[in-house]
Design brief:
flat; 9 strands; 2-enoyl-CoA Hydratase, Chain A, domain 1; 11 helices; 325 residues; alpha/beta; 13% strand
Length: 325
Amino acid sequence: MSDPHPKPKDSSDQIGANSQTELENKLAEIDRNIRETLDEFSQLRDGAKVLPLFLNKASITSKTVDDVFDDLRVQYDSVPAPERNRLDVILESSGGSIDAAYNIGLLLRRYAKQELNIIIPRWVKSAATVIACAGDKILMTPIAEIGPVDPQITMYNPLEQRLEEFSPLDIDLTLDLIRDEFSSGNKDLAQGLLQRLQFPLTLGGIKKSLEVGTHYIKRLLASRMLQGEEEKAKEIADCLVHNYSTHAFCIEVDEACSIGLKAEMLPDDQINSAWKLRKLLQEKDQIEKQKKRKEISELLKDLPPELLKELPVDSQIGDKQKDPE
């Protein structure tokens, strides 16, 4: 049986074949399909206002807060106040700034004073999980997942002259390893490990970033999803920040329920529409990248070859990126 919503082809392979007008026509058609699918989904959700917040691989930043605010004002400020009490947010994001994510969570609540549902077709990882915790309920497809919220730190290693990415949770594991080596008499190895650690004050600041995530999640859960259940909210926050063995851990609907979140499977009749919308938004993202590459190609085509060699390559335009970790 063929897939009723096949995965969009990688449009980056067709850059030379499509004119700018063709790409604009494709985008217009996709926008129409997105609007129709949103209307269909809204009807299935008993007329709820639906906001697609499809950030894909783009990092959540302070600009994302501005963009979401602009979208909400354009789409919902004209809606009568009594109808603004419920909002369904279809969310996909690989994470980013935890402070910006917290701000977005609070912002969405202001447009959904009575009911905020976070709908996850595929994934909401890292800091984006904070946004999910702002809702009254999390609705997930069978393959949807949220992720742990231990921050990922990127720092320059002066000894090896390269960037390293790690979780603050790794610091305690490393200190435990050093203590074990000292206790076992392997002082040279322990000393070597100590010399590779960053400046102690830097390590302290990095470890404190764990408290920020715990604090944000606890405040969000205790004030909405788990209103009045502060201890339970704290337990869940501690779990999401400290208890998972890897930042990429798959927290699917059953796991989310088991740690105490109010999560449930999206009803069958709504899964197809949510998944169709995700694929349409993916396709739109690919074509917009293709359009941008074509615009850049047009700007650069008359430059001398020797000058073109000196230009940096923008790896974010049209290139395939890794799944969120």
